[in-house]
Amino acid sequence: xxxxxxxxxxxxxxxxxxxxxxxxxxxxxxxxxxxxxxxxxxxxxxxxxxxxxxxxxxxxxxxxxxxxxxxxxxxxxxxxxxxxxxxxxxxxxxxxxxxxxxxxxxxxxxxxxxxxxxxxxxxxxxxxxxxxxxxxxxxxxxxxxxxxxxxxxxxxxxxxxxxxxxxxxxxxxxxxxxxxxxxxxxxxxxxxxxxxxxxxxxxxxxxxxxxxxxxxxxxxxxxxxxxxxxxxxxxxxxxxxxxxxxxxxxxxxxxxxxxxxxxxxxxxxxxxxxxxxxxxxxxxxxxxxxxxxxxxxxxxxxxxxxxxxxxxxxxxxxxxxxxxxxxxxxxxxxxxxxxxxxxxxxxxxxxxxxxxxxxxxxxxxxxxxxxxxxxxxxxxxxxxxxxxxxxxxxxxxxxxxxxxxxxxxxxxxxxxxxxxxxxxxxxxxxxxxxxxxxxxxxxxxxxxxxxxxxxxxxxxxxxxxxxxxxxxx
Length: 473
Prior knowledge:
The structure is a single chain. By secondary structure, the protein is an alpha/beta fold. It is built from 18 helices and 18 strands. It has an eight-stranded mixed β-sheet with strand order 8-7-13-10-9-14-15-18, with helices on both faces.
């Protein structure tokens, strides 16, 4: 069979006919839709050692241990570990020489009519790639977007089969595996916003790049990982917390960019709605900002996130070109206030009607979505390097017919100046800093935060090298 055109049924049958694959299925929520495929196509006796569902919470706790949340990464991990250990204990002696064992598990909540929330769930597979070998693992988080439970169950079954098939036959090419997760599905039915590869067969895989692949291959609009490279779901990080998010290309993060973020954070903390609660601070990059030329340079991407990691920053990758879409996304995961530090040039873009010609409500629709949940914009001033003119919120040029609208945003506190900024930083431009790094001009080190300078030199990022630096010294 041509693997590029395998249907869900063909994938399940291929696995059933592969005598080296043998394992267990544990599914909680939305029925046993994944296991059903293997019984449906025939030959399941060659693949399925066991299927089970522990729907009752007391039963689930008795098997896998107590959990605060039953649809969670923690519960999925407990299911995978328990079932895999049990499989080895029961079958390794009799089948271990001729089988690669696996366990597939999922824990899912379908669409809630009472709370009007989308279905979502955690799916994973723990599997061997050789007899008696150590297991590797793939975990994903999926959002199910159908509004009928039967349709959600069908989609869950399809993506589960795709994950199992990918683990068996594409673990050596994880980018292909990711692309085939959505076979026989579409983005209006399913979204995969987190993936994590672990184990010996993924020893060379960087999960930060895999998070980027989810957005590049359009399985999701966003992916997130922490400073230490741990891939996470937005709801894990943002739930019921205020959020401060700075958008940038970060090639690299410079002193004025950090100053903008830190001064905005100081003002954000004074907002009455926060009640002193510290916000989650996120650095966000869009796919367009990751492009070098017409392509995304993955090495350059890792350079950027390595420097952000040096400052302990969580990174969000998104496909959102406009700020209102970013705010709408964040508002799905928190009802708390969202703060946006941005430079004066970006504020001009926000107020530029030409960016919203595809929206029925144009600029008004964008601003309504941007500010409807109490978002705040904190604006870093701009210094014209030729004229020396300082531009702030008060003296920014606005189209005459938009001046009253802009004044409304300023007077009502939706947009405000960043105070207490360092005036010297206004003379630093990111393009100049990057050029100096590549040229080996040591003056760049004073233009970025010390931890970033250290990691650039230690890992020779952005084209910096000891040899070039020595020549220009």
